[in-house]
Amino acid sequence: MFFILSKLLDVLVTPLAWGLVLLVLYRVRWKGRSLPRANIFPLVAAGLLYVFSMGPVAGALVRGLERPVLDTSRRDLTYDVVIVLGGVVDTGPMSESAEPAWNGNIERVLTAFDLLRTGRAKDVLISGGELRAGSKTFREADIIAAQLRAWGIDDARIMVEGQSLNTRQNALFSADILRAKRYQSMLLVTSAFHMSRAVGCFRAVGLEPDVLSVDFRSHPMGDDLSILPRATYLDESTSALREYTGRVVYRLRGYSKSAL
Would you state the CATH architecture of domain 79-216? Predict the structure, then answer.
């Protein structure tokens, strides 16, 4: 139930949804009369879409998620295991082909591969459950594991957790595997915008991994001053608002503890 509600909330917190709701309200009539001052609704809808499509707004939202930078990784330590969270597979192209397709979060996997390749981590635990691509169903952890094997990582070093459907479950199901293996040193790798909620979830299940944030997306203040609306900025704002909402909901539910 929480999974379904969280996906519904993902839609409701988007600027596009707010704009559509306002436009619908503009057309609503009650007892044969228009809502009072209804003409303001289209203006507000357009204003919301414009504001969240601006570079400075999108940049500030993403920068707020990525700051402070969370990185407690130790360069002089060989970790028993590096933990990689899913959310890197692009299901759209995979509906037409069985070949793996990746989204902008792929740096999570690339970083884990580099840690394994250079000997900074002995093993890897990949956490990611089922994905649907058209009529096909995949386990994200299996796709990532297959890619690591193709890059030359020994199968004996790869573990998969293929049940989780969200960040809470990433931590919950991974904890069982990590405790069973009795790993002492653990390094959690995920995107910078996602790290605060991710490490909070691991802390909530009693684990204290070191963390390495990757996949930074924000720019220094002053680099994104364009006030012209762009669809890419609207997408960045939407993703950021979803993550802010996720942080609040997870904290209220007790799924996440305060980050570092």
Answer: 3-Layer(aba) Sandwich (3.40)
- pTM, 2 dp: 0.89
The model's pLDDT over 179-195, given as tens digits with 9 standing for 90+, comes to 999 999 999 999 999 99
Tokens for 229, please give them: 């609306």
Residues in the chain: 260
CA atoms within 13 A on the CB side of 141: 22
Cα–Cα distances in angstroms (integers) from residue 104 to residues 7, 61, 88, 94, 136, in the given order? 20, 18, 7, 15, 22
CB atoms within 10 A of CB 152: 9
Handedness of CA 66, 72, 73, 76 (dihedral sign): positive
10 Å CB burial of residue 243 (0-12, 13-18, 19+) is: buried
Ranges in the chain annotated CATH 3.40.50.620 = 79-216
CA–CA distance, 102 with 88 (Å, rounded to integer) = 6
**Residue 86: which of 153, 143, 22, 39 has the closest Cα?**
143
Report how far Cα 232 is from the mean position of its chain's Cα atoms.
Answer: 17
